[in-house]
Amino acid sequence: MLAKRIIPCLDIKDGQTVKGTNFVNLRQAGDPVELGKIYSEQGADELVYLDITASHEGRKTFTDLVKRIAAHISIPFTVGGGIHELSDVDCLLSAGADKISINSSAIRNPQLIDDIASHFGSQVCVVAIDAKQTADGWKCYLNGGRKETDRNLFEWAREANERGAGEILFTSMDHDGVKNGYANDALSQLSQILTIPVIASGGAGSKEHFRDAFTIGKADAALAASVFHFGEIPIPELKAYLCKEGINVRV
Fold first, then answer.
1. Which positions are annotated as active-site residues?
2. Does residue 153 contact residue 129 with C-beta atoms inside 8 Å?
3. pLDDT grade, residue 169 (50/70/90)?
4. What is the spatial distance between Cα 49 and Cα 75, in angstroms, rounded to a whole number?
5. Could you give the C-alpha distances from 73 to 3, 69, 98, 202, 226, in angstroms and in order?
6. If pLDDT is split at 50, 70 and 90, which confidence band does 118 have?
7. Is the pTM of this model over 0.90?
8. Residue 27 has what pLDDT?
9. Contact (Cβ atoms closer than 8 angstroms) between residue 47 and residue 10
10. Residues 6 or more apart whose Cβ sits within 8 Å of residue 220
């Protein structure tokens, strides 16, 4: 069985790592390169860097920062935000990123998933989905959670899978930063209908929440931000706990 992955997520705004609650009320969390280096040394399996205002502000993502990250860390990392075309992907991979994450641009232009998969390989393409439970079921959102769409989470995830995405990174906006646990029912449903790995995001507040994402939610990886950035759960301690709980992680 493949090892479950622990992935710190670094949301970047104006060159600094920030963290909010329900996608708002951002506070500073430190230098993205330094934090990445620490996580790499602590045993994180991968990192995700998201330029959280690139799509909203209509600009490209941060190639210079990606070069600095690649020079200082030794684990795979994914970069997202403001990626709209193949040349953006090429630029970020050339700068040292291992994978790219697309969200708003994929919903607006689903063909982008096919194009990235065919040009660079599915393993490069992570489709991130920000979703919220509404009266009409789980709906997907654009532009860092600012704009609701008519796309259903499960239908869109399945389509992304079929188009060649290598992984789905699912963030429950209602759970984001609240620290009450991941959206395990939705995660479990995603893992049943998809043939690619699912990364859980939004809601980590305790070591038990990670365990539940893997056991109840059937996630392949668990992503978190504030519990790592503010030293609440050290990664070595988390992995030791998961091992004791019978979950296969790399230590």
1. 11, 130
2. yes
3. very high
4. 13
5. 21, 6, 12, 24, 20
6. very high
7. yes
8. 59
9. yes
10. 2, 4, 5, 167, 191, 197, 198, 199
- Residue 145 CB burial class (10 angstroms; 0-12, 13-18, ≥19): buried
Residue 88 · residue 115 · CB < 8 Å: no
45: number of CA atoms within 13 Å, CB side? 18
**Alpha-carbon span 198 to 219, nearest angstrom:** 5
Determine contact, residues 155/137, Cβ cutoff 8 Å.
no
Tokens 């075309």 sit on residue: 85
Structural contact between residues 156 and 140, judged by C-beta atoms closer than 8 angstroms: yes
SS3 (DSSP) at 206: coil
Express each pLDDT in 223-235 by its tens digit.
Answer: 998 899 889 999 9
Joined together, the tokens standing for residue 79 give: 């970069």
Question: CB neighbours (10 Å) of residue 224?
Answer: 26
Query: How far, in Å, are 13, 49, 93, 94 from residue 87 at the CA level?
Result: 22, 19, 10, 10
3-state secondary structure of 224: strand
Residue with tokens 């708002």: 24
Q: Coil, strand, or helix at residue 144?
A: coil
82 in the Ramachandran plot: left (φ > 0), alpha (ψ -120 to 50) or beta? Answer: left
pLDDT of amino acid 21: 58
Match 């040394």 to its residue by tokens: 41
Q: What would the mean pLDDT of 112-141 be, rounded to a whole number? A: 97
- Rounded distance between C-alpha atoms, residue 100 and residue 113, angstroms: 11
